[in-house]
Amino acid sequence: MYGATNNFIRWPFIVEGMVIGVIASVISIALVGLAYTALSEKLLEPSFMQIINMNLVTFSEMFSSIIVVYMVLGIGIGALGSIISMRKYLKV
To answer: What's this model's pTM, rounded to 2 decimal places?
Structure first.
């Protein structure tokens, strides 16, 4: 047997999917952060908060949980998508 092994050919595609997942996670965290901050500032008006009688959590308090979940999902979905597409299109 000569040439590259199957794993040597497949791993760059999986890593690429994971990198794309990380980039998508960063973009989605930024968009969710901006949207949540903008909406929470509108909702923090005293009259509205007295009507609903609750407090909102700031985005900085949720950031550590959100970043872990988004990164794990982004990397996992990116790798899974690469594996599925490799099985379909890459005959090695």
So the answer is: 0.79
